[in-house]
């Protein structure tokens, strides 16, 4: 089997989305086992995967998922209670399904090892279905087999129906498997009387798309019988794996009808149709209500049909409310479906590249217009530039995704690692709605995973140590994201023991990374953990201790034009802060000239522009300015990059900010804003930390894009290395 079929590709994409939703729900149900909505979400995901796999003949997925779905169905009916052991088993089910979907992508069949893993899970699931095996820790209440006795206490909580309600949706392969849907209806007559039967044909496609060998039928049956539920279920034994079947006993609880309505197929139905499908209303009763409603409208304003049904005491208010809610959900789902379209990521990247070329071409046209002094053409190109800017923003917005999806995946990581370590750790997520470029999201996952695992292993202490230190036994790990000065900041914070500076410094001296007796600032000591091969772990574990990882984390962050920072309070915890650009493709830039070279500074990081001599007390020959009482370090780009060209008399300072740090960049000319298409530097310049790429100007010249984070890091490094000009300048101000 190959993945060349576009429908099979869609199946794989949807399966992975459903598995992601299933995992989130499984982790949530461990905390709230009685939440029926979460349980229904897990069931729907499994059922949809099974149904979709059946369309492609993927029997190894269908057979495995069917058993899992059966256990979930018993859990929904109250025959099995979801506890921690069953939730853990279904996480293994989720993982195995993910492996099976990967096989579909690879076009291969399950290996013997994978079959054995699936068989082990299947055997454990069979126990919950009454099969052989060790008895699990699970409570199995007595199943209601016949109608509930109506008492004064429960009268308000049940639906006053004397009949069973049977809802059938036959699978598409029922005919091919030699089954006749009507034969099961005829078989019901041996157990009782079919009072009413409604044939559901909504799933039948148009005539040109109709396959005569495929079944698209469904039935809603009102059935009067004294038989037990197990006898009615046995009628459908031969077709159970190919159908969706719901059986509600007489006088079922209102909550059971509410659940049934919620699980109806996502199709547009009027209120009456929904109530007929769930068996709480017959067609004759609906016709009578519609007649009553039409008579009422002659003398008074029309009332909603739901209100009339309740007034006539035909349907209880909670059931009507559930049907109305279902109606609203279907409308919202259809509206959302109509507003969404899947776009291949490669096509989106191609669009971004074309927009970038359009920006460069537009800049060239604008330059020609200015040089020619053609006012009309300049006005036209200004309008064109504005429109291109709007197209650029719209195109980039298509690539922006919320980081919440990435954060939510760590619920599973924290669960598994905390159990492996024997620690109780709670994950707190904030800023999940923060958006950033899809490419950045895809590449940030691995570094974040390492930081999270490292915080849990090295940062958060064991329960007895935490209690001894006066902390709660349960540790807390926080993931947070927010926008700041044109960047996105991602924080990984733990309330553990923090970093031991003395131990880090001792290990660094031992490994020859630092000279013995050297004086380092706190930040410099903390940054030592990002050196290759550095580790303070006393023992090697499955999670850490080999000194491999933190250097890779820093390298991966820097590859995204980002920067990683670390703060720690010994005994209180640590915070790792990652700063990343919002997008890797196109930015608004501020163009400056230095000698014969043009540089572009990211506009989001520019605070203001000032004249150097107006603020420099030393004539601009030092390294610091007194900017309105604030000490501002500055650097000449001419000296920093060793550029050629005539020296100008009037120099300007571009004040930039990155995170908490500010600095001034001395330039010759201020050339204004410029839409910048970022193009990466070649491998030859991969070691350059102060240039983030280049762009092509309208006249064909190349302008270098200044990497502000890298430049700031260099300035901070110089300052921490012992520059005393700040102290000197502050002393001058005081005196």
Q: Can you put this structure into words, describing what you see?
A:
By secondary structure, the protein is an alpha+beta fold. It is 46% helix and 19% strand. The chain is built from 25 helices and 21 strands. The strands form five sheets. The chain has a five-stranded mixed beta sheet. Strands 19-12-13-21-20 form a five-stranded mixed beta sheet. The protein has a five-stranded mixed beta sheet with strand order 14-17-18-16-15. Strand 10 (563-569) and strand 11 (573-581) form a beta hairpin. Helix 1 runs antiparallel to helix 4 (84-106). The longest helix has 28 residues, at 345-372. The model is unreliable at 132-157 and 723-735 (pLDDT under 50).
Write a concise keyword list for the protein shown above.
735 residues, Four Helix Bundle (Hemerythrin (Met), subunit A), five-stranded mixed β-sheet, 25 helices, 46% helix
In brief, what are we looking at here?
The chain is an alpha+beta fold. It contains 25 helices and 21 strands.
Give me the secondary-structure topology.
Blueprint: H1 6-31, H2 36-55, H3 59-76, H4 84-106, H5 112-128, E1 164-170, H6 181-188, E2 193-200, E3 218-224, H7 229-234, E4 243-248, H8 254-262, H9 271-277, H10 283-299, H11 305-311, H12 317-339, H13 345-372, H14 375-399, E5 400-402, H15 404-408, H16 410-421, E6 425-430, E7 435-437, H17 438-459, H18 463-468, E8 475-484, E9 487-494, H19 501-510, H20 522-527, H21 550-559, E10 563-569, E11 573-581, E12 586-594, E13 597-602, E14 606-611, H22 612-615, E15 624-627, E16 630-636, H23 637-641, E17 652-658, E18 661-667, E19 669-677, E20 691-696, E21 702-706, H24 708-720, H25 725-734
Parallel strand pairs: 6-8, 13-21, 16-18
Antiparallel strand pairs: 1-3, 1-4, 2-3, 5-7, 8-9, 9-11, 10-11, 12-13, 12-19, 14-17, 15-16, 17-18, 20-21
């Amino acid at each position: 089997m190959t993945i060349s079929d576009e429908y099979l590709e869609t199946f794989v994409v949807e399966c992975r989305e459903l598995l992601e939703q299933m995992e989130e729900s499984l982790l949530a149900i461990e905390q709230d086992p009685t939440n029926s909505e979460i349980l229904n979400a897990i069931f729907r995901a499994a059922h949809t995967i099974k149904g979709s796999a059946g369309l492609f003949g993927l029997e190894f997925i269908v057979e495995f998922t069917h058993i899992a779905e059966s256990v979930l169905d018993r859990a929904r009916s109250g025959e099995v209670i979801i506890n921690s052991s069953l939730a853990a088993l279904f996480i293994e089910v989720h993982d195995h399904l993910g492996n099976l979907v990967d096989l579909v992508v690879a076009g291969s069949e399950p290996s013997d090892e994978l079959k054995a893993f699936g068989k082990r899970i299947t055997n454990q699931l069979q126990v919950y279905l009454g099969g052989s095996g060790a008895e699990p820790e699970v409570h199995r209440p007595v199943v209601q087999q016949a109608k509930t006795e109506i008492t004064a206490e429960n009268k308000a909580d049940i639906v006053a129906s004397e009949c069973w309600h049977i809802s059938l949706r036959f699978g598409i392969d029922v005919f091919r498997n030699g089954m006749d849907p009507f034969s099961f209806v005829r078989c019901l007559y041996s157990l009782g009387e079919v009072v009413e039967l409604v044939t559901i044909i909504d799933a039948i496609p148009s005539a040109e798309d109709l396959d005569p060998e495929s079944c698209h039928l469904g039935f809603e049956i009102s059935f009067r019988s004294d038989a037990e539920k197990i006898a009615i279920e046995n009628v459908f034994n031969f077709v159970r794996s190919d159908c969706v079947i719901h059986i509600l006993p007489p006088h079922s609880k209102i909550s059971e009808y509410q659940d049934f309505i919620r699980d109806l197929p996502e199709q547009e139905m009027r209120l009456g149709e929904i109530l007929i499908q769930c068996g709480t209303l017959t067609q004759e009763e609906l016709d009578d209500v519609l007649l009553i409603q039409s008579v009422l409208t002659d003398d008074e304003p029309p009332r909603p049909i739901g209100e009339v049904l309740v007034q006539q005491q035909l349907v209880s208010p909670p059931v009507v409310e559930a049907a109305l809610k279902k109606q609203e959900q279907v409308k919202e789902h259809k509206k959302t479906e109509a507003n969404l379209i899947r776009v291949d990521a490669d096509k989106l990247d191609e669009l971004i590249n074309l927009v970038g070329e359009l920006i460069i071409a537009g800049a060239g046209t604008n330059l020609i217009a200015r040089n020619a002094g053609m006012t009309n053409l300049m006005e036209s190109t200004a309008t064109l530039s504005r429109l291109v800017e709007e197209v650029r923003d719209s195109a980039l917005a298509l690539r922006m995704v919320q980081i919440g999806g990435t954060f939510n995946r760590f619920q599973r990581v924290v669960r598994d690692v905390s159990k492996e370590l024997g620690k109780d750790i709670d994950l707190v997520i904030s800023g999940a709605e923060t958006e950033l470029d899809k490419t950045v999201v895809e590449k940030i996952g691995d570094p974040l995973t390492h930081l999270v695992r490292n915080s849990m292993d090295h940062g958060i202490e064991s329960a007895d140590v935490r209690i001894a230190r006066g902390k709660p036994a349960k540790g807390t790990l926080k993931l947070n994201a927010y926008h700041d000065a044109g960047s996105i900041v991602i924080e990984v914070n733990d309330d553990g023991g923090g970093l031991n500076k003395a131990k880090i410094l001792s290990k660094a001296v031992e490994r020859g990374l630092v000279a013995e007796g050297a004086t380092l600032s706190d930040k410099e000591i903390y940054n030592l953990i990002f050196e290759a091969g550095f580790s303070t772990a006393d023992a090697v574990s499955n999670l850490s201790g080999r000194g491999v990882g933190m250097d890779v984390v820093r390298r991966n962050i820097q590859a995204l034009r980002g920067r990683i920072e670390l703060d720690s309070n010994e005994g209180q915890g640590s915070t790792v802060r990652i700063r990343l650009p919002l997008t890797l493709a196109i930015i608004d830039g501020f163009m400056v000239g230095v000698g014969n070279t043009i540089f572009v500074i990211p506009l989001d990081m520019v605070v203001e522009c000032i004249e150097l001599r107006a603020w420099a007390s030393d004539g601009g020959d030092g390294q610091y300015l007194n900017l309105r009482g604030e000490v501002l370090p500055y650097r000449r780009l001419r000296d920093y990059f060793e550029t050629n060209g005539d020296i100008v008399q009037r120099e300007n300072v571009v004040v930039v900010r990155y995170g908490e740090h500010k600095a001034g960049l001395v330039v010759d000319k201020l050339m204004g804003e410029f839409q910048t298409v970022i193009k990466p530097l070649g491998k030859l310049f991969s070691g350059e930390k102060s240039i983030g790429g280049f762009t092509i100007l309208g006249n064909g010249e190349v302008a270098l894009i200044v990497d502000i984070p890298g430049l700031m890091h260099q300035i901070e490094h110089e300052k921490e290395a012992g520059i005393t000009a700040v102290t000197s300048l502050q002393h001058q101000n005081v005196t």
